[in-house]
């Protein structure tokens, strides 16, 4: 600066390029009376940060807690887990293959059911061949002609705010809509993780049955598959193991080893037949038969190994 407190143009031109000097000259020169720079939070009158002002800013800018959309969602007559599912869906965060690839969790964004398009939320819940067939069977109560053309958020809002009543049982369409979304998502997961594809009519019937239960029309919840009801493929045969140990430790085992081997093979066949699990016992079963054949041919070492 020069002696008057203004920029010294000559010194600036000797230091900086000519196209930079005008920008520097447009800046106000420092004044001795100026205060030091400090951080200011502009959303409070005092300029100081408060969590209350930050929460108010976030709520106003992103959450829109007074929006009618959230009222339709959180007041829906369905269990809380379905409301949370619908909220994740509406925020476009459902873990489809498209979302998995976006987060670098997977390598393919194709639909696992039809393998004909990217598995977006709208695809798996509306546009896929399975989802489309389910909605067609519920078409008499479709709330709007734009049902298959709108974007995700508008599609959800239109169906949640619909006052259409489904002819089967007189159920409000929003409840049946949420129930159908849930069953379509569960059906997709059954196919991806369990390799089980439900018939389209079964998905439709489940959606209607559960919607009736949510509304209190049916007092008893529909039956669901449970791990406790799954068939047991193999169980430790405690009594047979004890019997085999008794045979091996008996003093008669060294007298007639051929009879001992045959008795154990017969015991294994009984276990094999009782539990009906050939893929678990095939190797051992064949090994025992091999030992019997070797023993019958005079190979004493095989019977002793058994």
TrEMBL record:
Query: One Pfam family from the UniProt entry?
Result: zf-RVT
Q: Which residues form the Reverse transcriptase zinc-binding domain?
A: 49-135
Tell me the domain of life: Eukaryota
Q: What is this protein called?
A: Reverse transcriptase zinc-binding domain-containing protein
């Amino acid at each position: 600066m020069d002696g008057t407190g203004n920029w010294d143009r000559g010194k600036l031109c000797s230091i900086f390029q000519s196209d930079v000097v005008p920008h520097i000259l447009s800046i106000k020169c420092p004044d001795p009376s100026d205060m030091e720079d400090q951080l200011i939070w502009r959303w409070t009158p005092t300029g100081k940060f408060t969590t209350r002002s930050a929460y108010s800013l976030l709520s106003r800018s992103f959450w829109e807690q007074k929006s009618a959309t959230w009222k339709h969602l959180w007041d829906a007559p369905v269990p809380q887990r379905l409301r949370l599912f619908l909220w994740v869906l509406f925020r476009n965060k459902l873990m489809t293959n498209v979302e998995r690839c976006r987060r670098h969790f997977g390598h393919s964004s194709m639909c696992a059911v039809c393998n004909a398009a990217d598995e977006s939320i709208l695809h798996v819940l509306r546009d896929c061949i399975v989802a489309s067939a389910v909605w067609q069977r519920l078409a008499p109560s479709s709330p709007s002609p734009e049902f298959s053309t709108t974007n995700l958020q508008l599609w959800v809002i239109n169906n949640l705010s619909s006052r259409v009543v489904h002819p089967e049982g007189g159920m409000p369409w929003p409840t049946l809509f949420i129930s159908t979304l849930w069953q379509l998502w569960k059906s997709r997961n059954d196919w991806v993780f369990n390799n089980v594809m439900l018939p389209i009519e079964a998905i439709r019937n489940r959606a209607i049955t559960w919607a009736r239960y949510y509304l209190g029309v049916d007092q008893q919840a529909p039956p669901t598959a449970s791990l406790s009801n799954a068939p047991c493929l193999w169980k430790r045969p405690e009594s047979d193991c004890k019997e085999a140990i008794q045979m091996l430790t008996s003093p008669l085992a060294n007298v007639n080893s051929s009879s001992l081997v045959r008795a154990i093979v017969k015991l294994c066949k009984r276990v094999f037949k009782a539990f009906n699990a050939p893929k678990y016992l095939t190797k051992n079963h064949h090994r025992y038969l091999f030992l019997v054949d070797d023993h019958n041919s005079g190979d004493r070492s095989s019977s002793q190994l058994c």
